[in-house]
Amino acid sequence: xxxxxxxxxxxxxxxxxxxxxxxxxxxxxxxxxxxxxxxxxxxxxxxxxxxxxxxxxxxxxxxxxxxxxxxxxxxxxxxxxxxxxxxxxxxxxxxxxxxxxxxxxxxxxxx
Length: 111
Known about the structure:
The protein is of the alpha+beta class. It has helices at about 20-35, 65-75, 75-90; strands at about 5-15, 40-45, 60-65, 90-100. It has one domain: 2-Layer Sandwich (Alpha-Beta Plaits), CATH 3.30.70.100.
């Protein structure tokens, strides 16, 4: 999916409760996949040097086939329930660093 282009979000979080955040990720993963989404990169940050909240300790990219798929995912009632139950108690700060369109992958060359 991501190789064909798509829509991506770069997100930074302050995860205050890693156990609740892990439960959130487990609950939302099948919903994300059902909307064609995935995590392309996912980092646990040891030290943030700058940012809106220097305590940011998680950075990741979410990738969707297109912007409409992203919007359907965030509007999904199952996702909203998982977010309320696990994400909101676990995360004290969220920052969308960027949203962008991924370029299509170059066509394979045949030698």
